[in-house]
Amino acid sequence: MAAQQVEIVEVGPRDGLQNEQTPLSVAQKVELIERLAAVGARRIEAVSFVNPKRVPQMAGAEEVMAEVPRSDAVSYIGLVLNRRGLDRALEAGVDEVNVAIPATDGFSRRNQGCSVDEMSDAFDDIAAAAADAGMPISATVSTAFGCPFDGETDPARVVGVARRAAAAGAVEIALADTIGVGVPHQVADLVGRVREVAAGARLRCHFHNTRNTGYANAHTAVEHGVAVLDASVGGFGGCPFAPGAAGNIATEDLVFQLERTGLPTGIDVTETARTGMWLGSALGTPPTALLGRAGVFPAPHQE
């Protein structure tokens, strides 16, 4: 029997950059995306169609999409939060759109200026318009494991958001540990609960390593049948509206773990680590990923 393929959604160009102090130029963002496609990333969250006054690191989305290399092998994802964002994404020519729907009102009001119910209403509208345009849409349920403002997240809230998003047409539901507080037993529990109410949608997980649980959580998700994981090259990222929420799980470290477990990803781990180091130089911040420093094992044979 062939080993299970784990798909990595590379979120470095969006979630990886949005919380960094040094904004990259359009040319640097395009180079980052080119490098990621070259190492084997086949789904890349490339841009965010949010107000650049609120998240200046995400400025230039249309310019980036106009310059990235196009290939049937690579799908570019754009984050949108409202119909205006969707209209921009469609005009820019993304291949997929993703919408973040918080599971807690405290985070939703601070991050998106509305309640969870209001954001779910917005998703219904966005999903209907995306369907009319033939655009695949996914929903990321943020603060699924805990909220910096409301504390512990009730799993029933996550289930409710996921159920409604799936009913509205989401082809994929992502469970996001926005502030990095989840632990493996919560992952197993929540994946099982959401699978029951969103049977028509793929499940994806998005983990932060803020408290050093992200890789264990990713492994648990895969053990429970999740075949799509988000990761950010170099381990960069975090939410600018979630205090202390730094550190996406790093693509290179995750790929190393998966490949050593016998789970192929199609991503060149060595070149990804080099890209993480390149990005760290561009940002003036060392990557949190460890593989770029430690190297792969076994080490490549040297003639």
Automatic annotation (TrEMBL):
Domain Pyruvate carboxyltransferase residue range list: 6-273
GO MF annotation list: hydroxymethylglutaryl-CoA lyase activity; metal ion binding
Keywords of the record: Lyase, Metal-binding
EC number: 4.1.3.4
Enzyme class at the top of the EC tree: lyase
GO biological process: ketone body biosynthetic process; L-leucine catabolic process
Family membership noted in the UniProt record: Belongs to the HMG-CoA lyase family.
NCBIfam families hit by this protein: PRK05692.1 (NF004283)
Name this polypeptide is given: Hydroxymethylglutaryl-CoA lyase YngG
Source organism of this protein record: Streptomonospora litoralis
Primary gene name: yngG
